[in-house]
């Protein structure tokens, strides 16, 4: 009796109180996210002609090449990171040995490093006084440097993508059904076929989800390029220069909207395709 | 399992990748405490560079701490109740709002910062205040807090717990603080750690939102990398790592603890910051 009473009472109190609890977040979201985003969108259409900024972004060589370079860089970073993570992740999920948890910790602790720090670490590896320069001096008397070219960005982006992707792959690999592999083996499937048809298929949702996050992160990464001060204009750098040096706010806004649309769309598609939750917060 | 050549090949590859992750960090740490990096470690160890960084950049340390704690406070105050509402409501509006709420994670920080500057850059008092950066950090980290708590709430039958408490005469506040909050403590801790970690290392937004008087640690780092000698940059990075270390350890510990006590029904996301960071 009392139970049903309280149940009805619970339903009765709902709406008003729940709305009140949600109100602060509603206000913060509306005032500091939706409204600014709407302003950004409006400004991106300012100019001589409606949509001229977008037309310019997709036709003028310096914007288009920046967009294409960033896309190619992000795709290759994603593929290489996935390949590395599948090898390491499967190995770590399937074998037990002393020091394994330490190894996993060491592989994943740079997860929280911001892009600027990773830029500096790339300079440590491939800068003018870096490891590879020392190595080059020893071997053929010249300083080998790669930090300030597109290779430096590539290395940096792979560096910060590995921890994220690896954690997801390990978690997914631990859940794989080993009996499926046994069954495939007993039917005479080759190791390659088992890897392709059983293991990779099983990992597919995780690979799609983490690959999408890796791609989106690489597209929007700004700190690493900033720290390396390269002459490669990845899209975020182009936006930054348009905004600060060019004072071309409308163009910067249009490029930002394009960039945001690309990253959002990739994450959205991955979420649809993998069935799993590919949103970065999950 | 038999140790085949393939096993050693994979182990070797994994160790190689581990070296790739570790070596630059170790190089940076040593450079930060070496008298002269070009002469190498034989020139002697010193804390001179660390002291120098502290004298030049100590205000960035304090601001970073202040920002992280303020971001956490806001996220706890508004994020946890919001998560409760979102987990409880089945309406389409709640789902739509949840989507909007997590949207900042899918959009590069640079774009969000640009939008904030366009909308509020003209308000001088706000533009020059550290609160402007706080707004950016809250927008960016709030989704992580809300999602972590919502995930826990979805995994427990909190409605039944609540009805039980209610039938015993507990009012709403009593139920919220004595039933809901303790039951999703794991999610709150994950969300809190993620908030702190993300805020301390945030650069994309912060670089756009900062002013010369409101520099955070990552902003100061970018500054040092561009203009200071290698030893100072390294010492500064070392200080940043030392600040990050307790958070990383706590995150790992929290992950293990929750894995160990994971009741079958309770599945919460690993407390890792998988956002569009950097």
Topology of helices and strands:
The complex is a heterodimer of chains A (282) and B (278).
Chain A (H helix, E strand, L loop, with lengths): L1 H43 L7 H8 L1 H34 L5 H9 L6 H12 L4 H10 L9 H26 L2 H9 L4 H30 L2 H6 L6 H10 L4 H26 L8
Chain B lengths: L4 H28 L15 H41 L3 H15 L2 H12 L3 H4 L2 H26 L2 H10 L4 H12 L1 H17 L2 H6 L7 H11 L2 H31 L18
Keywords summarizing the entry:
heterodimer; A: 282 residues; mainly alpha; 2 domains; 0% strand; disordered C terminus; B: 278 residues; MetI-like fold
Tell me what the structure shows.
- The complex is a heterodimer of chains A (282) and B (278).
- Chain A is mainly alpha-helical and 282 residues long.
- Chain A has two domains: 1-44, no CATH class; 60-274, MetI-like fold.
- In chain A, 79% of the residues lie in helices and 0% in strands.
- In chain A, helix 3 packs parallel to helix 7, helix 3 (61-94) crosses helix 9 (191-220) and helix 11 packs antiparallel against helix 12.
- The model of chain A is unreliable at 1-10 and 278-282 (pLDDT under 50).
- In chain B, helix 2 (48-88) packs antiparallel against helix 11, helix 9 (185-201) packs antiparallel against helix 12 (230-260) and helix 11 (217-227) packs antiparallel against helix 12 (230-260).
- Chain B has twelve helices and no strands.
- Residues 263-278 of chain B have low confidence and may be disordered.
- Chain B has 278 residues and is an all-alpha fold.
- Chain B is globular, with a radius of gyration of 23 Å.
- Chain B has one domain (50-260): MetI-like (MetI-like fold, Orthogonal Bundle).
- Chain B has helices at residues 5-32, 48-88, 92-106, 109-120, 124-127, 130-155, 158-167, 172-183, 185-201, 204-209, 217-227, 230-260.
- The longest helix of chain B has 41 residues, at 48-88.
- Chain B starts with a helix and ends in an 18-residue tail after the last helix.
- At the A-B interface, helix 1, helix 3, helix 4, helix 5 and helix 7 of A face helix 1, helix 2, helix 3, helix 4 and helix 6 of B.
